[in-house]
Specification:
Structural class: mainly alpha
Order of helices and strands: HHHHHHHHHHH
Number of helices: 11
Distance between the termini: 34 Å
Length: 188
């Protein structure tokens, strides 16, 4: 299934010169530490496809938070069960930017090359309830509000957010989710 997201990446690949084609996937993943090369590395890895996923999974455990973040960002493009299960460990990462991309990558159905093979809803509900970062919490609420298939487990969280939260963006996403879920016939 070709999405607008994958078409954009394909266009970027056509326009980008090859980046270190002799490098192994592991060497490229390690290069995510270099801010000047991150997009080049991303595209070089993407061009190789699923064969680089073992190196991406290994990158989830890298000491450098930028490597973990960019590996999570990369994983967003593949509906690979083993990779997405390994990615779940990043939901507890000390860096909020890593957790933010882990939330997105685990749940975004638009960016993937197929349906998400794991049930991310409980993981996202946990982030909404427990994460210290308002940005991570907003991301989790936003993706659940616009999830392809509304899920009844989410409704109580949306209601709770509307009753107890002050953050405008968090409330906006919860309100959109409630409207969408109600339209789909789900009620508490």
């Amino acid at each position: 299934m070709e999405t607008a997201h994958s078409k954009t990446i394909a266009r970027m690949l056509e326009e980008a010169p090859p980046f270190r084609p002799e490098s192994t996937a592991e060497e490229l993943v390690a290069e995510f530490t270099n801010s000047e090369n991150r997009m080049k590395v991303f595209l070089a890895l993407y061009a190789r496809g699923e064969e680089v996923l073992p190196a991406i999974r290994k990158g989830f455990q890298n000491a450098d938070w930028q490597v973990r973040r960019w590996c999570a960002l990369f994983a967003d493009n593949f509906a690979d069960s083993e990779t997405l299960h390994a990615l779940a460990s990043l939901l507890d990462d000390p860096k909020s930017q890593v957790r933010l991309w882990a939330v997105h990558a685990l749940s975004c159905e638009t960016c993937k090359d197929g349906p998400t093979p794991i049930d991310a809803v409980p993981l996202l509900l946990d982030r909404i309830k427990m994460d210290k970062s308002i940005k991570v919490r907003r991301q989790a609420v936003a993706v659940l509000a616009h999830h392809r298939e509304p899920d009844s487990r989410v409704l109580p969280i949306f209601v709770d957010i509307m009753a107890k939260e002050d953050d405008h963006k968090l409330r906006l996403h919860a309100e959109q989710g409630l409207k969408r879920y109600t339209k789909a016939g789900l009620h508490i």
